[in-house]
Amino acid sequence: MSADTHLTGGKNYFEDFEIGAVIRHARGKTVSNLENVLITNLVMNSADAHFNEDKMSRTPFGQVVSYGGVNFSIVLGLAAQDCCENAIAELGLDNIRLTRSVFHGDTLYAYTEVLEKSDSDRPDAGIILYRHYGVNQKQEIVAQVDRKVLLKRRP
């Protein structure tokens, strides 16, 4: 993906985003076992795929798989720094896709495509529909989500 690189700054108001633009977010995050254990326990997901190293070593995966909720959350967080610093409200998360397994030690990066922009009923804000992509260190897409945000207009 060819894209501009952002890292939180003055270019994250409604007017600054153009339909069709693609942003490569500057930061990455290496997935650790700590996140997997913490989040899966918080949401009561006790599947062997996320906790049983011995059992998973005998599957085609060969190891424990990171819980999709962890991966999805990391991608949203990486994208938020550039796209949602001036958000007033999250309006929706749709079309969530977890397209490839993620393992401990994989590093995730995020890209964002601006799909739509529209006025809102608030004069100080507009609505943007983003598509966030999460990729691993091999640039393979591992997650995708459409995110609709009510975003401040430039003061």
From TrEMBL:
<dbReference type="InterPro" id="IPR052342">
    <property type="entry name" value="MCH/BMMD"/>
</dbReference>
<dbReference type="InterPro" id="IPR048274">
    <property type="entry name" value="MC_hydratase"/>
</dbReference>
<dbReference type="InterPro" id="IPR029069">
    <property type="entry name" value="HotDog_dom_sf"/>
</dbReference>
<dbReference type="GO" id="GO:0016829">
    <property type="term" value="F:lyase activity"/>
</dbReference>
<dbReference type="Pfam" id="PF19315">
    <property type="entry name" value="MC_hydratase"/>
</dbReference>
<protein>
    <submittedName>
        <fullName>Acyl dehydratase</fullName>
    </submittedName>
</protein>
